[in-house]
Write a structure and sequence with these properties.
The complex is a heterodimer of chains A (669) and B (372). Chain A contains 22 helices and 26 strands. In chain A, strands 2, 3, 4, 8, 13, 21 and 22 form a seven-stranded mixed sheet that branches. A five-stranded antiparallel sheet of chain A has the order 15-14-26-25-24, with helices on both faces. In chain A, a hairpin with a 5-residue loop joins strand 14 and strand 15. Chain A is elongated and about 140 Å long. The termini of chain A are far apart. With 372 residues, chain B is mainly α. A three-stranded antiparallel sheet of chain B has the order 1-2-3, with helices on one face. In chain B, a hairpin with a 2-residue loop joins strand 2 and strand 3. Chain B is globular and about 60 Å long. Chain B starts with a helix and ends in a 5-residue tail after the last helix. The chains are: A alpha+beta (669), B mainly alpha (372). The interface between A and B is large, with 48 and 65 residues.
Amino acid sequence: MIGGHDGFIEYRTHFRWAVLLVLLAFLVLVGRMFQVQVVDGKRYETLAMVSHVVRNRIQPARGSIHDREGNVLATDVEVSDLALVPHYVRDPDGELARLKELGALTAEEGDRIAAQIAKARLDKKKRFHRLVGKRNLIGSRCPEDMSEMNFDSATGRLVCPKCGRTFIDQRAVVQAHLHELPGFSLQSRMVRWYPDRVLSAHAVGFVNEVTAAEVEQSGGKLRAGDVVGRAGIERALDAGLRGVPGEDVFVRSAGGRRIETKTLPEPFNAFQSSPPVAGQDVTLTLDLSLQQAAVSALSRYRSGALVALDAETGEVLAMVSHPSYEAGRRVVTGQAAAPKNARPGMDPQYYAPMLNKAVEAYPPGSTFKIITTIAALMEGFASEDLEMNCPGFYLFRGHKFRCFKRYGHGKIELIDAIAKSCDTYFYVLGEQLGIDSLAHWGRDVYGIGEPTGIEIAEKSGLVPTERWYLRRKHQYQPGFALNTAVGQGDVKATPLAMARAYAAVVNGGRLLRPRLVRSVRDPATGEVTMSQPEVQRTVEVPDAFIDIVQQGMYGAVNTEDGTAHSAVLPELPFSGKTGTAQARERRSGVPAEVAAWLQQDHAWFVGFGPSKRPRLVVAAFVEHGGFGGAEAAPIARKVFEAYYAGHAEEFSDLWQGFDEEVLDVVREP
Amino acid sequence: MISRDSHPFSRAVWTTALSLVAIVILGLVNLSNAASYTGETFHQTQVLWVVLGLLIAAAVAAIDMRFFEQLSPIIYGGAVLLLILVLFFGKEVNFSRRWFSLGEQSIQPSEFAKPAVVLMLARFFHGERNPERYTLRMLLKPLGYVAAPAALIMMQPDLGTSLVVIAVGFSVMLFEGIRLRSFLALLGTILLLVPVAWQLDIIQPYQKERVRTWLSMSGAAPEARDDADTRMQPEQALWAVGSGGVLGRGGQNAVQSRLRYLPEMHNDYILASFAEERGFVGCLALLAVYLALIYSMLVLAIRARERFAVLVSVGATAIVFWQVVFNVGMVTGIFPVVGLTLPFLSYGGSSMISGMIAVGLALNAGIHRGQV
């Protein structure tokens, strides 16, 4: 049987086939092993790694915003939401009934959550997704004004020290009974809180949750639920305020256990967590006392704005737009609330509460005459003793250009023409200067019609040229120059730009960039970066000419016949120029009251104080407010008063007209 | 003739025995590694199974083959009876009844059905007059011998083992010799039955899901978390195998295994853990040892003196071969998931003993060559 017999002859072929089959099969297996381990090994290794490494983003705290004194204007506060996973809610009806019983839910909220649960439970996957049942459970802060509430041990309720209302501490109640509420949990969330509510809404702005489209465009930087600045400083400095998210990186075992990467071998130990970089804290140049003065002065009117600039540094001490809105509400409830100071019958929707009118452009009216004056003096068309006769109109090429004073100012010289705002006088100067020279002095020199460079979004305004008319209106008439000279026609300026131009008139010719940001603090290093004054350009105007203009503006407020005499502050005089700009508007579908309002003139006042040593420039604007001297100047006066009260010492040598006793009172408010 | 007979065991016997021992040792080392990740002690139990298995293999090899021939109807009948009983009295694990509970341990009767089918088929063909080629009609009986346990196992349900029984049955029949026409007809019928079984839900929903997963499985990371659940098992295994690379990550760095991402790590997916630790080189060595075992078992079969012994050894070889092919194919993603063990490497007594019986049967054929 040796050699000769190797088993059954009949099976030999089959044996060979079998061996071939086995070899082939093993070849395939080895080939597959080679493919998986050698060819694609690296890729699978990466996949294995990535699937285990958990990366959780840590959201940094958004930076706070303060006024120049350090008062908080915007900050993040923590609120709690009631969250639930439908699948794990054992007894929806019972648990919701318990929550209602505890005072954490109203009947409607309970019904809504019951419907939410029922709907989610139909879906195999969605039933495991976490839902927010109710946002903003009442916790330690009052839902009305977000102020810290006190616990009243007698009633077991929270009492708001501001509004006096009492609340059940829903967060604490739910927390204490979570064991009875399987499937429910508390989830904390940061919301933006604006403690001063309406006071600085337009300058500070607000934040909102990002939209799905923005998340997509951000390339991974933003995620759903993130908030970004939408207006004002919140928007302008969004990147800095937002900070840099950190990442909590760890490896999860199949059992769900957390394993720190550094305890693991290569390549897992290369993964490192990074702490979030908190957002920068921003201190604004705003002075809340000036802000408050402007808001209360403007509150009598339907619509208006005010800007106060430090003439030496360009710091914006006040920026108010009226009516205002409550920024925090937009974050907390997702909708803007009606401003608190709305008078009955004055629905704010007609007066654009969201618009920052301090940086919107309007015809500046006679406040533009200061620029016309300087242009005429510089171009040699005017001098201090240039006298004209004002019969109440100026006849130009057969067309009567009317002075606001119907029967005229009679014989009048330059300083008086400014103080009394004689239109006739400036029509003549406008005719002599021509429109392009006015545009040169207005735009190229004093920056009207160009962006001021403030941090927040702004309109540019306009000083038209002949070319502009030909291009835009396809006709030019020499009479347009006359209108431009008195700030009418197509001239448009923002209150901010007017304030900046006036600051350049009184500070020695420095056109400054208005600054809202005083300093930025890096929370990691504690390093504070102060913003510095920025001179955009210098205007060379002889002191003698400036003196003429200043005298004219002093007269406007401080002489009997001045247009703004009603606003005079004799103790520490300020100066300025009124403006009453025709700006009739037609809007359909508005109540008669609003339509009538739209027919009124814009009231302006731009001034500086103290007159003898100008430091503060105020531009007050009342949209369709009427006569500038009567409506806008008193608003500016309130702001000057507030400023003087805060800087009494600085101007102690300038106080006049009353005794030391009063001065002491002002010094120590 | 005399000189050859003075060596009681041929080289193939030695090769078979040595490769078996090699695989068993590799398996124990690997299993103790796997156990160390989780701090479990199942590798110690496995030592008992290995010892018991080796004793049984020796016993099976020593017993006269005629004994098996005479006893095969009883063995087969007993195996089928157990398969019926397990459907009613088995322990339900993961929605299937595959196990009899015996205190701490449990027995998987389907494992023992495999050698039983082989014995029964061998006995049938041994008794036949052995025509040149079998026709389909002639094969009705042996087909029934295969179909009965295969169907019962399918009902547990346990697709993997059922497929192995079918593959083993076909291997024996093919080796014995079927007319090509008959073979193609059979193959065609089975292929036609697959969609019918799919439609009639004889193939369980979870099995369908596995097929879908396999069809969609690529090198891409799972996109949605929900998706990850069904994909987890096969993909994690594939990633573990891939992570092994050329030389393997070694026991300490085998992260997939250490982090317990590998499902059924010590069981059906033991190869994934092995592959991650030992890499392509290790896998190559392992497959080489398996090849040596299977080839030498085949040699033992062809050298047997008796038709019965030949067919039993071929069937025994087929058991080991198909299990290796299906298991390695499953772990590396060639096939969809069909739960079955890797012979001698996976943890488990039934699988170990069943494999040992198979090798014992082949050895028997080699040892008792001269005793016909």
